[in-house]
Automatic annotation (TrEMBL):
Residues 1-94 form the HTH arsR-type domain. It comes from the Bacteria. One of its GO terms (molecular function) is DNA-binding transcription factor activity. This is DNA-binding transcriptional ArsR family regulator. Keywords: DNA-binding. Transmembrane segments: none annotated.
């Protein structure tokens, strides 16, 4: 098992559509118990719990126990790494598209 010291890669954690949907659901609330999250999916509670563990290992969610119930909360800060990566490539492709547009414009003159 991965300990909190051995963080899971954020990109790996968000690669799965179920985990992305869990993050979306958690972004709409302050804190949500596991049982309320499971109703949004066609997979079982155990599978949802495993997905949440992967998100926790990537520090994308915080969790706390209240009695027998585990509640989850979004921690959006690790997503900054994803934003920075996407922003770099957005600039990369914008530059390439501008160059292509200029070449096409020059060719039609």
């Amino acid at each position: 098992m991965i300990t909190k010291v051995e963080k899971r890669d954020v990109f790996e954690a968000i690669a799965d559509p179920t985990r992305r949907e869990l993050l979306h659901l958690l972004s709409e609330t302050d804190e949500t118990p596991l049982y309320q999250l499971t109703v949004h999916f066609e997979i079982g509670r155990t599978a949802i719990s495993k997905h949440l563990t992967i998100l926790w290992e990537a520090d994308l969610v915080k969790r706390r126990k209240i009695g027998r119930e585990t509640r989850y909360k979004l921690n959006p800060f690790p997503l900054k790494e994803v934003k920075e990566w996407v922003t770099f490539y957005e600039g990369f492709w914008n530059e390439r598209m501008n160059t292509l547009h200029q070449l096409l414009e020059d060719e039609t003159k």
